[in-house]
Amino acid sequence: MTRKQRRLTIIGGSLAVLAVAAALVLNAMRDSIVFFSTPAMVAEKHIEAGKRFRLGGLVQPGSLVRGDNLAVTFSVADGSATLPVSYKGILPDLFREGQGVVAEGALDSSGVFKADTVLAKHDETYMPKEVADALKKQGHWKDDYGAKPDYNAKAAGSQGASRAAQGAPLAEQSAPSVKQGASQVKQGVSQ
Amino acid sequence: MIAEAGHYALVLALALALIQSTLPILGARWRDAALMNVARSTALAQLLFVAASFAALVTLHVTSDFSIVNVFENSHSLKPLIYKITGVWGNHEGSMLLWVSILALFGGLVAAFGNNLPLSLRAHVLAVQAWIASAFYLFILITSNPFLRIANPPIEGRDLNPVLQDIGLAVHPPMLYLGYVGFSISFSFAVAALLEGRIDAAWARWVRPWTLVAWIFLTLGIAMGSYWAYYELGWGGWWFWDPVENASLMPWLAGTALLHSAVVMEKRNALKVWTILLSILTFSLSLLGTFLVRSGVLTSVHAFATDPTRGVFILLILCIFIGGSLTLYAWRASVLKQGGLFAPISREGALVLNNLFLTTACATVFIGTLYPLALEVLTGEKISVGAPFFNLTFAPLFLPLMIAVPFGPLLAWKRGDLLGAAQRLTAAGVAALIAIAVLWAWTRGGSAFAPLAIGLAVFVIAGALSDLAERTGLFRVPFGTALRRARGLPRSTWGTVFAHAGVGVALIGIVCETTWNSEYIGMMKPDDVARIAGYELKLDGVTQRQGPNFREMVAQFTVSLDGQRLSAMTPSKRNFTTRAMSTTEAALLTRGASQLYISLGDTAADGAIAVRIYHKPLVLLIWFGPVLMAFGGMLSLSDRRLRVGAPKPAKLARGLQAAE
């Protein structure tokens, strides 16, 4: 076999495998991709029941109700809209009222979001990136969600300070990290 | 004082790296041996200073010096000593310092043991190593200095993220970084070869063991990380197709391909240009992994201590190194001469096939990981790509590869005999068919996929063993002769057998765990009994306990099988007051290769506790497989013929090939 033939064999084989891979990727892209949405976006766009998506926002304080056998319901809010969520299972360690959450599932016919997964990142300043961007966009971003306190600016060492501040009312955001990303969230659900 | 000394040592290391990145190259241009030798001494001195800097940070953490921001944010005086040490790299600044320390270590090793390398090659390699090092020193000094002080030192620190207070942190990041950064050596060799415009036998002899070392550590690091996530996060999952995990899987796939193509290059002097490209890609993917983990651009379950502002700097490093090396490749690769003809059906052909599938699989992971990011930047749409995507793309590409694995070692170099190889694999095929039939009968009505996948795994393992039997003449010659032949086999052959069998073992574990995993979730009160997979788990009671820097609620379970008491299990929920965080400490009971897994949820008002219990059949094989692979790698590494510094006939060959 000459060098040319060998090269053609290899290139032909490679192209065949790559074509198969491309077909697999495109096929998977169509079926297995999940969009992100906030309650306001759900209200704005009509999302059909049964269509899977990720819902992100803050857990509405006072909305958490524990039912029998690990069934829980709570509401997810993003400042302008709320959406009831039902879930069965153990909530992550960091699930708390007033904190950010991302849930994956679908709406049922009565408009309740049935979550099969509630995601959590294990960090006390937990704020899913999608939620942070969406909140920034709507001006409900609290500075200290992710920001590090400046220890040299004020008397340092009061660990309580930054945590206590989280209870403060929603402040107009002034973080320097307002990204263009935030303004793009609104298109998130378009299909 | 210690902090300032550490900082200063780091600045000196940067200065040394800058010298090391320029003078040796000039030396190589001017054929000045003295200048070229500068690389060796600066590389060693750089290692010394970085090690001093790292030691300084460790000292600060161990002595709980809270006047240092890094220590204050990540440590606590009551934290056990082991976590004070591991906490050094449990945060962004410290882990970057560990990264450059390992980089300097590898540079130092090349300098120390590279005496038999051609002088100009060594100078080039160390210079390229120093380019990478300089970029990362600058990154640390400008954006993430671990030695910053606080004006008014607090009395107590904020403690390390409780999830990280685990022995896993002592092992997983250093291993992973040894893997990631280890690939910098093959990268530097590749760039050096492109700069020099030639590539010879000495090159391949050198690159292969270094790639192997990096690959062994990366394999173990990924397996360790997976097991850590499995027992620490409390969901019983071991792989989430999460961006951070994918970031480590991509260099592994490319590195595995590199390992195999380096064999072809060493043995047959073929695939040179491809090997160079793979070296560049593998380290580029390692850099990309560092970028994804450290910049916080992707949402992940494992990303700790992320900061988007630093992302820009790492992105810049990424663009310069990946863009630069690929440009260099496009410009210079044609200078390197092709060599070694082979038929498509041959050992080389099999290895090309391996490379083809591994890199394609790597590309699908790459697309799945970065597509959401690209889409968000371009259109603003936010999507997530999860397990279903990878199951639909990665798995179908891996299956044909698995079928091909046993054939490779049985084919001869240059021109192989596929029919002959198939005949020699008859026994393995029969074993696989029996496994499928037995499983099919046993799990009647269950998933049809699982028996087939396990059959494939059995085929891979049996194929590896038949290769061994073939080589030793087992069953054909007296047992004693076979044993003697087995002892005489090259260690790298044994390495291949173990590594390939490891793939099959891991596949069995993966299939069993995902198919026959059983789960019980519910509220339990004391004296309640949960039944799962034949086991009875009785909740005896719940007690409170005080740990060094946490309080924990411990639940006692008694496990029994067929009325026989087996063991006690004590899952707990820890509450870390300093961070107001709680973690779930799962309890594991190992039975053979299977495990029972209990993790706790919330406590209800009536005293009942939410409990999650899993029975995971053969789950340990998932990690035992990679350990076997790494063991195979070590065997191969210890092969005399491959040993770094082994006397090599290549010295002579180099003179002849220099004209290429």
Name the descriptors.
heterodimer; A: 191 residues; alpha+beta; OB fold (Dihydrolipoamide Acetyltransferase, E2P); 7 strands; 23% strand; elongated; disordered C terminus; B: 660 residues; 4 domains; 11 strands; 63% helix
| Strand/helix succession of chain A | HEHEEEEEEHHH
- Which class best fits the helix and strand makeup of chain A? alpha+beta
Q: Reading side by side through the largest sheet of chain A, how are the strands ordered? A: 2-4-5-7-6
> How many distinct beta strands of chain A?
7
Ends apart, CA distance between termini of chain A: 51 Å
Find the CATH topology of the largest domain in chain A.
OB fold (Dihydrolipoamide Acetyltransferase, E2P)
Total number of β-strand segments of chain B? 11
Unreliable stretches of chain A, pLDDT < 50, 5 or more residues? Answer: 122-126, 142-191
In CATH, the architecture of the largest domain in chain A is Beta Barrel
Tell me what the structure shows.
The complex is a heterodimer of chains A (191) and B (660). With 191 residues, chain A is of the alpha+beta class. Chain A folds into 2 domains: 1-32; 35-189, Nucleic acid-binding proteins (OB fold (Dihydrolipoamide Acetyltransferase, E2P)), CATH 2.40.50.140. Helix content of chain A is 29%, strand content 23%. Chain A contains 5 helices and 7 strands; from the N terminus they run αβαββββββααα. Chain A has helices at 3-32, 39-44, 129-138, 159-164, 180-183, and strands at residues 33-37, 52-59, 65-66, 71-77, 82-88, 100-107, 113-119. A 5-stranded mixed β-barrel of chain A has the order 2-4-5-7-6. In chain A, strand 4 and strand 5 form a beta hairpin. The model of chain A is unreliable at 122-126 and 142-191 (pLDDT under 50). The radius of gyration of chain B is 27 Å and the shape is globular. Chain B folds into 4 domains: 1-165, no CATH class; 171-410, no CATH class; 411-511, no CATH class; 518-616. In chain B, the strands form 2 sheets. In chain B, strands 3, 4, 5, 6, 7 and 8 form a 6-stranded antiparallel beta sheet that branches. In chain B, strands 2-11-10-9 form a 4-stranded antiparallel beta sheet. With 660 residues, chain B is α+β, with helices and mostly antiparallel strands. The model of chain B is unreliable at 300-305 and 644-660 (pLDDT under 50). In chain B, strand 5 (551-561) and strand 6 (564-569) form a beta hairpin. Chains A and B meet through helix 1, strand 1 and helix 3 of A and helix 3, helix 12, strand 1, helix 13 and strand 2 of B. Strand 1 (33-37) of chain A pairs antiparallel with strand 1 (383-385) of chain B, so a sheet runs across the interface.
